[in-house]
Design a protein that fits this description.
9 helices; 5-stranded mixed beta sheet; alpha/beta; elongated
Length: 234
């Protein structure tokens, strides 16, 4: 059983607490899957997305790869022109025949893990100017921006602070936010509500400590304390 004083929350809440320092705003997380969590001025938290494949997680790494495979398989069928993504995906997956891409669901670790492992090759291809990969990144960015904007509307935030987390958005990248997907999210946010996509203030580990601090003492830690935790790589 859980011990006395244990706080059990979804990992998106921990990500939000670190990213925002507990202030109104959103954590937009795009790793293997995608989810957004945020809170408004009243402190009430809400979530959007995070439903998992095949019904959700739009804009996440597994979704990007699944969309790419659909394009390849449609090309094999003759429903669309042959896809230039076939060689990229086969190389990344260690396959000789693009038709075998449909067998990834049998990989150890499951479908989402197998698909997510292909996304970096697609991201690199987009950065190098491969047109179909670039289209995928554009769509992933639009999906993630819509996720954030929908949640901001539910929270009553007209100019939301949207903090990016996860491998697809790449907040640790030195050129952030100018990675293929994050650049699109940033552009849509600026166009729709005049705000940029932001780095997280702190890592999720600091968010966990901040949540525990609030649960124990009834208030968020002083920003300087949270910064010190982050500097100590807690």
């Amino acid at each position: 059983s859980l011990g006395e004083g244990t706080l059990l929350v979804n990992d998106s809440v921990v990500a939000w607490a670190g990213a925002t320092g507990g202030e109104p705003g959103l954590a937009l997380v795009a790793g293997t899957g995608s989810v957004a969590y945020g809170a408004g001025p009243d402190g009430v938290g809400l979530r959007a997305g995070g439903w998992g494949l095949p019904v959700g997680d739009e804009g996440g790494a597994a979704w990007i790869a699944a969309e790419a495979i659909r394009r390849v398989l449609r090309g094999l069928d003759g429903r669309d022109p042959p896809s230039g993504l076939a060689d990229i995906l086969c190389t990344a997956a260690g396959l000789d025949d693009p038709a075998d891409l449909c067998r990834l669901s049998g990989e150890a670790g499951g479908l989402e893990a197998a698909l997510g492992a292909l996304a970096p090759a697609l991201t690199l291809a987009a950065a190098q100017g491969q047109p179909e990969a670039a289209v995928l990144m554009q769509e992933a960015g639009r999906q993630l921006a819509e996720l954030a904007l929908a949640l901001a509307g539910r929270l009553g935030l007209n100019r939301p602070a949207v903090h990016a987390l996860g491998s697809v958005l790449g907040p640790e990248h030195p050129d952030f936010p100018f990675t293929p997907v994050a650049r699109v999210v940033d552009r849509v946010l600026r166009q729709r509500c005049g705000v940029p996509l932001m780095r997280p203030r702190h890592a999720a580990t600091v968010g966990a400590l901040a949540l525990a601090h609030r649960a124990r003492l009834g208030r968020w830690p002083d920003p300087a304390v949270a910064t010190a935790w982050g500097a100590a790589r807690c």
